[in-house]
Amino acid sequence: MFVRPSSVRSSPSPAAPRTAPVAKLPAPTPVASPPPTTPVQPVDRFESPVAPPPVSLTPTEPPPPTFDGSLPAPGVTGTDAWLPTTPSVTGDPSQRAPATYDNVINQFAVETNPRYTPRDGNTYCNIFASDVMGAMGVALPHWVDGSGAPAAPYQGHELDANATAEWLDSTGGQYGWREVSAEEAQQLANQGFPAVATWNNPGGIGHIGVVRPGDDTNGPALAQAGAQNLNDAHVYDIFPEGPTRFYVNDQGTAVNRPTTGSGSAGAPAPSPTTSGSALTAPSMDLGRGASGNDVLQLQRDLVQLGHLSESDLATGPGTFGPRTQAAVRDFQAAHGVPAAGFYGPLTRQAMNGALRGLGTAPATPATPSSPSAAPAVQPPQVDLTFGDTGEAVRALQRTLVAAGDLTQQAMDTGPGTFGPQTQAAVKRLQSRLGVPSTGFYGPMTRRALAAVPSAPAPAPVDGTAPVEPSSTSELGGRLDAELVGTGLEGQGQAIADQCAKDDVPVDMVMAMLTKESSLLSPENTLSIANNNPGNLRWADWEAQFGGQPGGPGGFTTFPDVESGLRAMVHLLGTGYRQEVDARDWNGLISRYAPPSDGNDTALYIQQMGQYSADWRQRLGLAA
After folding, report:
1. 112 in helix, strand or coil?
2. Which value, to the nearest 10 degrees, does the dihedral of the CA atoms of residues 528, 532, 533, 538 take?
3. What is the pLDDT of residues 502-542, one digit of tens each?
């Protein structure tokens, strides 16, 4: 992921953008005029003279160069990674083909291209993905304006990997992106459509990679930049299963693409399913926007299986709209298929199995029966994440209250809103169920919940706030419990003591450490090399904590991690006293990580409120 280092002091502005050299293809060889020919004489009186074949005097355009991924093409090696490239090979949305998509990816030679070599603590997963998609003619921006529209460099703010994943989820649909399952992502990439895998990691650095043509032996085939630059891998070699999501941009036209179930104007009207007829699932892949007989068949199957009502079907028979998509997701979640809302091979297999269980179509829609041991509170069957709202979120919150991971009081602060308290509760539930604690409510969490024999007894709700730690030693102990497995393990007491000494709220410090160095995760090599979790620039006062100037990347070097932590807290308590007392994230971050240093300051400010609320919840601190 490319994120230029945050700092408390401006660094020189980037040099003026340089124009990457344009790749020059060999000039076509002129075709010489044909020499004079001798007229062909007839063999006998019954044969006409044979004219020589015409020779075109117009030079033909040479084919695009072919790349194998070993060496990059001209024009794609610029190490000013925030500036666009000039690729030699581009993809035409009207002529999608796997060979073209492969060639586009290979020209960037991610394993040997200096553009993507990790340096200064930065990795470049989102830059590589953006470069490939730009060459394929689709938007996956590195810069966006205030509305989320792609912007030119320096005309908006930069996206890191997490922000790119959020952009795909919230705005990508306006630019042709839609979410699919892993299997469907591979299938569409094999037809030449651009596809990506994303991991939005709210607790640290996320990741994004390119799904390329290939097989899905361990998740879809993958090319990626990052801590490891790989041109030929598989998604689950790198990405975690569960929170990884897949998106494809398939608005173009594939060469020899299988016929879809979109229907045609001249197609005969579908005949209604009659009572007693055999039920089968549609044989074609279907997604949002499709229409025709196959969509109507899918809708009727969903009605029979109890995932779509007759009244919903009546609003758009034969049209794959939001209600049909929601019903497909509901079916997928109930049958252990990734709830992407796209009807593909995995869903087809599950649906045929479910329909065989019904045997024949009943005269009236089937109503799914409730198992006798089902809990009183039914978990939602759709994917949910931070920022979502609606009845599905409310159902999730009720489930979390019943499970004892969320108090009724916490739910009442935002019923139906997936905020920091709900996210923290999901993480606690996931930890108890042995699911990766990502805070994202998806298929793995639902399957783990379904495997629980009965709903846990609800936690007593007495309306009281969480019990706050009674001393700095107790707070330090809670911090140490939360920091196990991070690069800050064992530093809880030092953080608690310095926060008390400088009168800085510990949740503010932990929120900034989450952002600045991801709690010293291995990806933050620069912070680790400097023992500087807050990424402080050198100032004379830092000498009292053993700080020295001239560390890697121009940051201060401290003798140990504890010294670096104490210096960061002291800076907040002195240099940012006014902002700390007012809990003014906007003022604090605008100075601590200004845009002039290449930071996505707006995203930083937005995340701080979320992270600090999460830490208050985890540590039992009052708001």
Report:
1. coil
2. -140
3. 999 999 999 899 888 888 877 677 788 899 999 998 999 99
Contact predicate 194/136, CB 8 Å:
yes
List phi, psi (to 5°) of 84. -70, 165
Find, among 372, 306, 294, the residue nearest to 335 by Cα: 306
69-85 confidence digits (pLDDT tens): 999 999 999 998 878 89
Q: Give the Cα separation of 592 and 575 in Å (integer).
A: 10
Q: Looking at beta carbons, which pairs linking 423-432 to residues 24 or more positions away fall under 8 Å? A: 423/202, 423/386, 423/610, 423/614, 424/614, 424/617, 424/618, 425/397, 425/400, 425/617, 426/396, 426/400, 429/400, 429/403, 429/405, 432/405
Phi, psi of 396 (to 5 degrees): -65, -45
Handedness of CA 213, 214, 218, 222 (dihedral sign): negative
- Of 310, 315, 273, nearest to 293 (Cα)? 273
In degrees, rounded to 5, the angle at the alpha carbon of residue 320 between the alpha carbons of residues 319 and 322 is: 120
Q: Which amino acid is at 380?
A: P
More confident residue, 36 or 272: 36
SS percent in the chain: helix, strand, coil, step 5 = 40, 10, 55
Region for 248 from its dihedrals, namely left if φ exceeds 0, alpha if ψ lies in -120 to 50, beta otherwise: beta
Q: Residue 570's pLDDT is what?
A: 95
Number of Cβ within 10 Å of residue 540's Cβ equals 8
- Alpha-carbon distance 194 to 92, whole Å? 11
3-state class (DSSP) for residue 542 = helix
Query: What DSSP character marks residue 307?
Result: S
Q: What element of type H or E holds 271?
A: none
Please give the Cα distance from 77 to 85 (Å, whole number).
8
Distance, in Å, from the CA atom of 564 to the CA atom of 556, rounded to the nearest integer, reads: 9
